[in-house]
């Protein structure tokens, strides 16, 4: 025989359950929200640590690049001295064609037009061009330099005379830059201090729509940057 609670007791139990239910449910909801917030916090913290790590790496890389690109005071003073010493040579070369020197953020640039160094339609240095390169080496060999020799062309396709050897202006400009480096090496510049680069018809300094502009774009850019020992 089952025993039933008195009605008065049962009513009290039901009443108490009604009071407790919101608290129990509230506790469940609060716990679920807490777990979600905690998970989000942990995820954000991890993302923040990852971002900080990447930021430190980028900052370090930027510092290296800034140090590499921006001339230091000692480098700048040496290049300014070199620029003064090269002035007479550049003036002499200018009789043969337009020659420029420019001090930029990455070093001293000596711009030698194609016509000064090469005969028309040629990929090798002319006798005059070799003389100019030897003169340049004689002036700069007193200091150790990192030397980048960059070849440029105009946008006219490679002519029939050279087309069988060079598929594009990119190859032609590279061969011309390498030719300058070879002469510098023969004159005593260590090969590990030099770099031959081709820009082809990229980065023109004048319009390719006129003969005069195309002549300016056909050039060798010799960039000098001192090697400073720590």
Q: How is this structure best summarized?
A:
The chain has 230 residues and is an alpha+beta fold.
Write the layout of secondary structure elements.
Layout: H1 7-69, H2 73-94, E1 100-104, E2 107-113, H3 114-117, H4 127-140, E3 145-152, H5 160-163, H6 169-186, E4 194-200, H7 211-217, E5 219-226
Parallel strand pairs: 3-4
Antiparallel strand pairs: 1-2, 2-5, 3-5
Descriptive notes:
- With 230 residues, this protein is of the alpha+beta class.
- Helices cover 57% and strands 15% of the residues.
- A hairpin with a 2-residue loop joins β1 (100-104) and β2.
- The radius of gyration is 37 Å and the shape is elongated.
- Residues 61-67 have low confidence and may be disordered.
Q: What oligomerization state is this entry in?
A: single chain
Strand order of the largest sheet: 1-2-5-3-4
N-to-C CA distance? 101 Å
**C-alpha Rg, in Å?**
37 Å
Overall pLDDT, averaged?
81
The dominant shape is elongated
Q: How do the helices and strands follow one another from N- to C-terminus?
A: HHEEHHEHHEHE
The poorly predicted ranges are 61-67
The percentage of residues in β strands lies in 15-25%
Strand segment tally = 5
Query: What portion of residues is helical?
Result: 55-70%
Structural class: alpha+beta
Largest sheet: 5 strands, mixed
SS element count, helices:
7
Structural key phrases:
230 residues; alpha+beta; five-stranded mixed beta sheet; 57% helix; 15% strand; elongated
């Amino acid at each position: 025989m089952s025993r039933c609670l008195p009605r008065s007791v049962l009513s009290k139990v039901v009443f108490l359950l009604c009071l407790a239910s919101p608290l129990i449910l509230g506790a469940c909801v609060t716990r679920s929200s807490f777990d979600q917030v905690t998970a989000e916090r942990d995820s954000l913290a991890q993302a923040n640590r990852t971002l900080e790590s990447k930021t430190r790496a980028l900052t370090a890389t930027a510092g290296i690049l800034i140090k590499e690109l921006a001339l230091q005071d000692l480098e700048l003073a040496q290049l300014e001295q070199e620029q003064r010493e090269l002035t007479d040579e550049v003036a002499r070369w200018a009789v043969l064609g337009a020659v420029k020197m420019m001090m930029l953020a990455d070093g001293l640039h000596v711009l030698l037009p194609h016509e000064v160094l090469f005969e028309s339609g040629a990929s090798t240095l002319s006798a005059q061009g070799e003389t100019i390169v030897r003169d340049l080496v004689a002036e700069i060999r007193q200091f150790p330099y990192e030397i980048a020799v960059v070849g440029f062309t105009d946008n006219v396709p490679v002519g029939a005379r050279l087309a069988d050897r060079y598929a594009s202006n990119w190859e032609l400009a590279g061969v011309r830059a390498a030719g300058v480096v070879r002469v510098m090496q023969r004159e005593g510049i260590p090969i590990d201090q030099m770099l031959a680069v081709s820009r082809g018809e990229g980065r023109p300094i004048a319009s390719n729509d006129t003969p005069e502009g195309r002549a300016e774009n056909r050039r060798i850019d010799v960039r000098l940057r001192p090697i400073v020992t720590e």
